[in-house]
Structures are given as structure tokens and as C-alpha cells.
Amino acid sequence: MMAKYQHIFVLFEHDDGNALNVSYEMLGEARRLMDGFNERYALDERVIAVLLGHNVRELAYKAIDAGADAVILADHEELRYPRVNLYTKVISSIVRDRMLVKQAAPNTSDEYVKPRYMLFGADGIGRHLSSTVLAELESGLASDVNRLVIDDVTITHQYKTNGKPELYRHVLFMYRPDFSGFLWTQILCLDNRNPTIAREYSPQACSVIPGVFKPLQRDGQSVDDGSRRGGVEEGYRIVEYKPEFSSDDLRYRIVRRQIIKDEIGLEDSRVVVAFGRGIKDDPEGNIRMIEEFANLLNAKVAISLPLSKQPFSVSSAMKEKYLIPARVVGSSGKRIAPRLYIAIGISGAMHHIVGMKESDTVIAINPDPDAPIKDESDIFIQGRLEDVLPILIESIRGLGPSR
Amino acid sequence: MNHDKDVINAAVMVKLEPDLSEGNVSYNPDGTLNRSQTKNILGPHSAIACKAAMYAKVCYDAWVSVCSMGPPTAEIALRDAMGLCCADELHLYSDRIFAGADTLATAETIKHGIRKMGRSIDIVFSGHRAVDGETGQTGPQTAWKLGFNFIGNVIDYSIDLESRMVKARRKIDLPGLYTVIEDVESPLPALIALDPSYRDNYRRVSERLRYARLMKEASRRAKDYKSYLRVWSAKDLGVDVRYVGLAGSPTIVYKVEKIPKAKASRRAKVVDPSNVEALREVGNLIFNIAFGER
Fold it and tell me: Does pTM top 0.95 for this prediction?
């Protein structure tokens, strides 16, 4: 069989040289996936990082260190910051350039057309780029994925297979939690084998939730022990790509950039008090009580994701102060590890747990004995916040003035 | 198509979505959404896109056309959108063939729709993401297919009619690093995806007066929305049916399962709140962690 689609390509994301952790996480996961893939299918496909930027060669070495067999580097002053349309052209050109990919992975087949798999971060850079690159490559994309598995599967699908069972090989199972955090959807990107609509869809691509996958263990030293494919005998490869731009491409300009620090400071707070949908019986009054409780402890206030969608009618002062995305803890918000995390009326959907599980001590207040937050708590007060908080507030007051 | 230099033709892409606001949303006992008990509305991010389009109407006298792909009932999303942006036209792309589309196939349909609007569109507004699908992919994919510049996470924008450039302020969250506020300039045509924190900001009195007048007109039009509405089938749009709906979707939803309960990572001591003494002990613990030695 012709190998038109090969390798896994990972977009190495950074801001002007500052790498995003998700880049290392994706490379670690890509390494694990392809090691398993190569062993199972007796193939030799590579992990290739795609790195765009200006004066970022240093990051190419870090990408190798983090699991890439090769890096394709487009280093140009016009690429210093991401611009979606410009970056999309460059990334698409890179991954379709057979000679270039051959330089990065010398065993690439002569029939190579496009990547087999591609990974992006589900963040301010990768979310849009994954969309436009896959629109250009005319293939499928899953977003906000937190589990990846490669397997073979027999599918019977009205459109894809015209209702007949068909075996698909090397399928990337892309798992994404839905908005409720309770359902896991497996998304597959499959060729249309149905002759009337026959089409090949490659790469199979996704954006992955930051903080989910583990980077390779580094322990302060290089993971380059020569055991990885393409290792000692070939050496890891850093291949340069020279992009060309038209004057039209450059009419989209970045005029000014400003880095802003987070005003709320959840990450730096010793104690964080978080609340969720459990405030529903008296949203305004309960938020006020939680505010009082947090002030007493010099704690910062966080919320669960559903609250940032402002599902309650509360005064606009409360809404603008508390029900805002900047206070969200979880996979689509902050990941924090305070000394003490107090979860009030939060059920503990997976995407919330991701954001707080590293806390030293966790105390949860929830009337539901089956709430998943219980399994992440050291102390679980099984009751309504309306009953519990007044007693806690009173007892803490009695212990002396807050310092 | 030739342009009058000062004219801005705007399109808005909106979506009918389940109403996830408290009191309206219904969850099954296992925490999943009860779709049959939850009514559908104009998505909140779509509503923000409409506000941005209204801004173009107020400040640049833009002609505004709202479109949506969805079932026939999605016309209520268009009606509500009209009430927010005083649209001049409503377009519903509704055909059984469109059903089951993933983001690529949806973008394909909307691309055809926008090209068939009868005017050369300068700027398209889209929401940040749908509250049910939550991919945020359809906006940028539509932009790419149209050949428009894509500008995402926009918190403020203006248009320079003379140079036909859009100036936009973007808010880019980089998890683990920081947030960047970026000012960009892009030639038209462009597709703007609004950040959830976008607020329309009418700086001049004349703009506020015009806004008030247009809002009145908007509610008048919304009552009579059907006379502004055109429903398009796949044939009307002239799409290649192999590229839309399920047939044109590279991805499928293979399985939906409950997320298995993770192995308990901590063993909780359970406290009964009627035991005031036990609660006081918890209060002690909290106090000690909050104010004890580091």
C-alpha cells in the first residue's frame, strides 16, 4: 500500500520564544503514541515538531528533548507572532512539502502527500490555527481532546461505508469531554469508503486541552538516551524552511502587543474558596456569604465553569465581580495548587478537577453524597452551604481577628 | 462586484443552541443534559456577534444580513438575532442534507450562503463558540474557505472606511504564561469572532441616539421577521452535496459514554453538618491552614 499519509506533526506553540507547556505535553503524548504505533504496526513513523517564530532555534532543541524526532523550523521576523492566515499558509506548506518532510524524516515515502496525524493546543494560538489549517488540508478536526488512542476499528456507517462493515486501520480515537463534563465523546476522522462520496481524509487532527497530557520525564537531564527512533545513527534533525510571503499576506499587521498580568491572583493565593451551581437557591445571598467567608480567610474566590456563563440572575455588581471567566478553575480556566481549596456547591466535573487536584488540602461542601468532588476531597461536609457556612464563619471568627 | 467606497456589507453567523441558563436548562439525574426538556434559543455567543454587527450598523451604516444553518425551528434564533442587530435580511440554510454536519461541512454550507447574499460581504461576525458544540472551529474555518482574514478573540473593533481596514483588539489567553492584548489591522474582507468579553461601546451621543432608534426598529422588524426571512435548500445554495452534511463531514461521533469515575485520589473524611462540634473542628483546621506558619 502506498504511504500517502505519514508521521505525527505537532505544532510547537510559544509566545515570542516563551514555550507553552502544552507544547511539551503534546510532544510527550505524540512520542508515546508513535512508539506504540511503530511497535504494533511494525512501521517507522516519526514525531515531527513544526516551529514558527523568530530567533527560536533554542526551542527546536527543547522540542527534540521533549520527544520530537525532528523539527521543521520556519524562523523569520514576519513570523515572530502568530497571524492566523499567514501561519496557516506556512504550516500547510510545510506539512505538504514532501522533500522537506523527507529531510526531517528520511524514510518518508515517495508517495507522501500529507500528515497522518496532527496535534495543536486548545488555547489562544492552536484553537484557531488548527481550524484554518485543517480547512486548508480539507480534513477532520476534534477540539479540546483529553485522551488519544490509536487502534483499528470496524465501522458500519450510513455515509462513510454505505451501510457495510469496513475495517479502518490506524484510527486516532479522539476523546473529548462535553460541556457538562460528564460525557466523553469519541471522535474519529474516517475516509469516505462509500463510492458515491469517496474521499480520503487526512490528517486526523485535534486540539488538546492544556495540562492533561504528561510531558516526558526529564529529571533535569536530556531524554536523549539514543533509544528513540532516528536516534544516534541518524541524529535528530532540525530542518529549516524558508517561507515566502506576498505583500498581500503581510497587510494584516500586529500594531501593538501588551502582556497583562492576571488581576485576580488565584495562582498566588494560599487559600482559594470556589463555588458552583450549588448556590442556586439564593444566588445573591449565597455569593455574599461566600465573599464574607473568603474575606475572613484572606482567600481569593474562584468559580466553576458553568458559573462563568452567568446562569443566575444576580445583581450586575456581583455578576461582573465574580461570574467571570478569569475566576474559572478547571481545564478551560486556571490550574491552581493552593494550600487549601474549599469547594462550595461544586459537583466536581472532570474539567473542574483538572484545575484543583494539586491543592494541598481540599474541603468540599455539597449535599450530594455521590458528588464526584468527594473523591478529590480530604474533608467532605455533606450538607447545604446555607447550613454549613454560617457555622464555619462563626467558628472562624471566634478564633481571632483575621491577620 | 464593485463597491461604493463607503458601504459596509456585514454578515452575522448565528446558531440555535440549548438554553443552559439556570431555571431553563434541565439535567438528567446523571448530570448530563436533558435535551428534550431544555428549550433552544439564540446562543449567547451568537448574541454577542449580533451586538457587534449592530455596532457596524450604528457607526458605519452597515447593511446587515444574518444567517444560520439549522432545522426550520432555527428561525427563532434568526428572529432574536434581528432584534439585536436590526438585520436587513435573514437567511436560514435548512435541508435534511445539511444535518449531522461537523464543523468543516458546516463551514462549507455557510460559505456558499455568504457568497449567495447578493452583495459582496466585507465583514462577517461570528460568536466565540457554541455552548453545546464548544469547538470554536466553524468561524475560522468559514473565514478560511471564504478567503477572508480571520481575527479571533476580538474585544473591540473599528472600521476605517477610507482605507477599508478593520482595526481590532484581541485578547489571547496563553494558559500557563499570561494573557496578551493585541491590536491588529487587517484589510477587508475579514471574519471577526467576538470574545465573550466584547461589549459594544458607543462613545458619542449621536451614536447612542442612533442606537436607540435602531433598537426600536429592530424590535419592529423582529415582530415581522418572516417577511425578511429566506429559507435556502441545498439546491438553492448550489452546494455540492458531497461536501456538506454527514457526507461532507470528515469526522463522526463514534461513541458517547459517561466519563468513568476516576479512582478516588483522596479519601474524604465525611462530616455531618448537624454535628456542630465536628464543623467547628473543620473551622479550626481552615483557620490553621489560612493563618498558620508556612
Answer: no
